[in-house]
TrEMBL record:
This is CzcB-like barrel-sandwich hybrid domain-containing protein. Belongs to the membrane fusion protein (MFP) (TC 8.A.1) family. InterPro entries: BSH_CzcB-like, RND_pump_MFP. Residues 1-23 form the signal peptide. One of its GO terms (cellular component) is efflux pump complex. NCBIfam families: RND_mfp.
């Protein structure tokens, strides 16, 4: 087909190979939707899960407690270290009074102060460990997968929940590297998602810093500029990108 007869509408897609041949023949290149923030929450301690506050698909707010552990032992350790700290402070107070009366050696006073510092550190460690008994949401979003069950005993580092932020999505696409001549950050385009059958306005948010020399392609990221309510990560579709001068650019 002659360049002058090409349609001005270029269809861009992602994650399909071989990309270059596909772009040259059909112009259809797939686009995939992904959450900008996605993570798997893991256990920071070894213990028994006593409560899972959310199920797969449910929403949560930032700061919500999602998973709770049985921390009876850690709580008692903190009580013990707090008591030890109070006792060390009392001994230091006595040592200070005796020091004013020149009735105690300096080494004994220093030892009393060191005992307080050590007790404070022990209390701090136990307090920090106790805080790990509750896994809180780092951001608002939804649960994609629950990896443990209530009353299950898990080791430290065990994966608990897979979650994502449902307020911010990103479009991933791979385009011919020659498009970088005109495709820039902020370039507007339309994307039609297969799962909804609807078209959404979008714009290029960033470009990859490297080009694949084999396929002569580059990864490009975009974002939908209107409400993303109802969208889910993993949705896919076709982006429609119009170059500044379609008649002079080959897809």
């Amino acid at each position: 087909m002659a360049v002058g007869m090409m349609r001005p509408l270029l269809l861009v897609s992602a994650l399909s190979l071989p990309l270059w041949g596909q772009a040259a023949t059909t112009g259809d290149i797939r686009v995939q939707l992904s959450a900008q923030r996605y993570t798997v929450l893991s256990s920071e301690i070894a213990g028994k899960v006593t409560d899972i506050a959310v199920k797969e698909g449910e929403h949560f707010k930032q700061g919500d407690t999602l998973v709770t552990f049985d921390c009876t032992v850690l709580r008692e350790k903190l009580n013990y270290s707090n008591a030890a700290e109070n006792a060390a402070r009392k001994k230091l107070a006595i040592a200070d009074r005796l020091d004013k009366l020149n009735s105690i050696s300096l080494s004994d006073v220093d030892q009393a102060r060191s005992s307080v510092s050590m007790a404070q550190a022990e209390s701090g460690v136990n307090r920090a460990m106790l805080q790990r008994c509750a896994i809180k949401a780092p951001f608002s979003g939804r649960v994609t997968e629950t990896k443990v069950k209530r009353w299950e005993s898990v080791p430290e580092g065990k994966e608990l929940l897979a979650i994502y932020d449902d307020s911010a999505f990103e479009l991933e696409m791979i385009v011919p590297s020659r498009w970088l001549v005109w495709l820039k950050q902020g370039s507007a385009f339309q994307v039609t998602l297969d799962e909804t059958g609807l078209s959404y306005p979008a714009e290029i948010s960033r470009l990859s810093s490297a080009i694949d020399p084999v396929s002569q392609s580059v990864k490009v990221f975009g974002r939908i500029t209107q409400s993303t309510a109802g969208l889910l990560p993993g949705m896919s579709g076709v982006a429609q990108i119009v170059p500044p001068d379609a008649g002079s650019v080959s897809p």
